[in-house]
Amino acid sequence: MLGAEPEIVANYVETGQVKVVFWPVLNHGSPSVYSTLTAECIGRQNEAAFWAAHQRLFENQRDLWQADRDYYVATAVALGMDQAAFEACYDNPDTLAHIQKLDEMRRQWGIFSQPTFDVNGRVFSGAQPFSAFEQVIEDALP
Amino acid sequence: MKLRIFFLISLFALAACTAEAVEEPAATAVTSTPLGTSPAPTAVPPTPTIVQIAEATAVPTETPPPADEPAPSPQPPTAAPEVEPIVVEYGRTAEGAFFHGAETAPITLIDYSDFL
After folding, report:
1. Which of A17, A131, B5, B114 is within CB 3.0–4.6 Å of A32 for a Cys-Cys bond?
2. B103 chain-A contacts, CB cut-off 8 A
3. CA–CA dist A111, A106 (Å, integer)
4. ipTM above 0.95, yes or no
5. Do A19 and B98 touch (CB under 8 A)?
6. In this structure, what CATH number is given to the domain that contains residue A80?
7. Is residue A79 part of a domain?
């Protein structure tokens, strides 16, 4: 959703009309797992920083296929996180179990492809331009 | 005997003159009311008041400012009340997924994805 996300945020999130939830989908193996772990551990230190990590990881998604632990630690430090706390979270099996639990939940709900969007129960898949989100959101607004 | 008669006549004359000097009270009308009822109260006419007309006072007129003083500048229009900005919240759902936006927003947009 990164392409349309800035417009969604400016037009609907900042106006109080839409709340955006990011639900992890681990369809791409290790790159999906470690990048999601990184965002999770950054968010545990600072919930607002999760969204900064979200944007940063999306913008550098080409690097994620080859990224290792040091890459993700450097990403967390660059966003102002405490390195020791981040590494403790990143290496904790409970953190991995948590994101795997969320991943399993979406499978149980029938969400298999990515990206998939749910706007107040209206579900659609595939990358969409802002105009598509705008139409769905406007239809759902009270 | 004659003297006694003269005395009595004088006495009668004196009594007659005294009776004429005394005014007899005016006869008042007596209204009869039926038994068991009380007479309706009679309206007492208001005491007439003397109204004094106040003298007309002069209406104060604005005196033009002296020529060398600048005219007062017009007041700016009243500013519209400020609207409180929406506070974007950051948090986690009950399941632990991260969200941003007003928690009371009427629409929830869930993005099922990773970063690839």
Report:
1. B114
2. 19
3. 5
4. yes
5. no
6. 3.40.30.10
7. yes
